[in-house]
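so my prof wants the structure for this chain in the tokens format not the other one, which i didnt know existed until like an hour ago. anyway here's the sequence
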Amino acid sequence: MKVFLILITIFLSLNSYCQTDLNEGMTYDKNTKLFYKINNDNENLYINIYKDEYALKVMMQGGMLFFINTEGKKDTTSVPMIQYPIYKKPRNLEVLRVAKLENIPEVEMSVVNEYGILAESKFDLKENLEDFHINKAVFSSSLCIPLSSLGLESRGTIAIMIFLKGWRNVAIPAGGRSPILNSLSMNSSPSTDALSLEADTWSETWISYELK
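here's what i got, hopefully its the right format
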């Protein structure tokens, strides 16, 4: 019962950091085409995401990955990673995947779990827009990560990478062309081409954040 009450308390804290006014107070990143906001308190790190440009990309096989380098370096080698959402058929926003966190197994788990790594999200499709429209989908999410699970012994600057693979497992080589674009009909629309290229291209951003 005590563990349940602790989880509920943390989850309510997570909700308090979730953006209720769309992207208000958030920072836009042109590489990943999304808005983000990062906060922390004495116990947790909070990451909020709002994406209304090509948001279908977050639901593809690569999902959305968060790498957290506690030394503030732009390096993803053997650092804590959380993937949320992860690709599922049928779509399932109630699971996440973790790796390299302190004393936590590298497994898929519920978004409400005993480790205090909590997540919630919303994914909507605008019925009045065509399937390939840039703003067809809207995705928003909140992620709560206990600072203790990151192995942080003191406050300082950390580096967070937000990484979107889309449906590719391997990056397009430098100077290469998306094979999906090669396969599209000559009669495809510019919006179809743009969405296909976005979905088939890896995109990422590094954020430097000073823990309070």
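also thought this was worth mentioning. DSSP finds three helices and eleven strands in the chain.
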